[in-house]
Design brief:
40% of the residues lie in helices and 18% in strands. The protein has 363 residues and is an alpha/beta fold.
């Protein structure tokens, strides 16, 4: 008698912000699939595009380990921050762990005061542990200091009697940096770090002008010193200009965070023989197609001809999403359910499980 091959489902679901982490969302989805298809093979890959949660996602995907370092937050208050170490010795640093907006109360947000100093402390700690390769996630910062705080910390920790050039020619001489970033903004101007991201970090219009001018002056001085100018490169404006400091002073190269995770986690191998891939996020709309995590999942799956289901707490522009190639575009919340109830983690888990149970029954 012929036997039927078990269905293989790959889960690559981003966090449902303010509700479920990527791992929690995937666990709920996996439960729904198991209830509908008890024999199915379900593979999970914690999701990240370089923002908050990146360290955990990259460590889980590569079977690395988490380390803790003493550092300072954006207001120079002492904190314990986590970074990751992958099996090949590459350090994974998430700027939000040190200077993250989530660490500040709304009334504490002030990008004229906020500093990226703690990011430099994390980097220096990893260098002290023998790390020479770095993957840096540039999401969720509270700062707009063009990375000056980070550079100051590198000098203080790695060349306390010298300059940044001493740190670069000494402890940092053989270090390489890859930026996980899905932002293409330049450092300065109307699409720059201060103008686009400053207001959400607490900047008034006057502050935006001041921050932009400060970044412009720094870029002019750095260009004269190094003989090149990275301020207009895509991603220079990421994380309040930290992208610029990494590119200009540390020779960093930017890459889409999701694509970097796919490579490190061998996502292409996970896709072989897959029946379907399930991706998702909190809110799916036209912006999903602008390089967000589910769009990068779709791009990777199209290379291997694997259909992709998109699930989300809220769905808009469903026709655009289907036209882009998603085989299914489904909102997990029942019609009329109040938003406050939908955002409860227990409700979101139940809705996600029920949605995947229903979808999996069609396989």
């Amino acid at each position: 008698m012929a036997t039927t091959e078990p269905k293989k489902v790959v889960l690559a679901i981003d966090s449902l912000k303010g509700c479920l982490s990527s791992a929690e969302a995937e666990a709920a989805a996996a439960q729904g699939i198991a209830e509908a298809l008890p024999g199915a093979i379900v593979l999970t890959m914690p999701a990240s595009d370089g923002g908050e949660g990146m360290v955990g996602a990259f460590v889980a995907a590569t079977k690395g380990r988490l380390l803790t370092a003493h550092a300072h937050d954006a207001l120079m208050r002492p904190i314990d921050a986590t970074y990751g170490l992958m099996p090949d010795g590459t350090a994974v640093v998430e700027v939000a762990e040190a200077c993250g907006l989530a660490r500040l109360a709304p009334n504490e947000r002030n990008p004229l005061r906020a500093t990226s100093y703690g990011v430099g402390e994390l980097l220096a700690e990893a260098v002290g542990q023998g790390c020479h390769r770095f993957v840096v996630g540039l999401g969720g910062s509270a700062t707009s200091d063009a990375g000056l705080g980070m550079l100051r910390a590198l000098v203080d920790r790695l060349a306390p009697q010298g300059t940044l050039d001493d740190a670069l020619s000494g402890p940092l001489a053989h270090c390489s940096f890859t930026l996980a970033c899905d932002v293409t903004n330049p450092l300065c101007g109307p699409q720059g770090a201060a103008a686009v991201f400053g207001p959400q970090k607490g900047a008034t219009p006057a502050m935006v002008r001041q921050l932009d001018e400060r970044a412009r002056r720094f870029a002019q001085i750095a260009a004269r010193h190094y003989g090149h100018d990275c301020s207009t490169l895509p991603g220079a404006g990421a994380a309040g200009g930290l992208g610029y400091a990494f590119m200009q002073c540390l020779g960093a190269k930017a890459q889409m965070g999701a694509d970097l995770l796919f490579r490190l986690a061998h996502f292409d191998e996970m896709l072989r023989g897959a029946t379907v891939v399930v991706t998702g996020e909190g809110c799916a709309d036209r912006q999903t197609l602008m390089g967000k995590f589910p769009q990068r999942v779709l791009h990777a799956c199209r290379q291997q001809g694997v259909p992709v289901w998109l699930v989300a707490g809220h769905v808009a522009d469903a026709d655009d999403l289907r036209s882009a190639g998603f085989a299914q575009v489904v909102g997990i919340n029942p019609p009329g359910q109040p938003l406050a109830e939908s955002l409860r983690p227990d409700v979101a888990r139940a809705n996600l499980t029920a949605t995947l149970r229903r979808l999996a029954q069609r396989l």
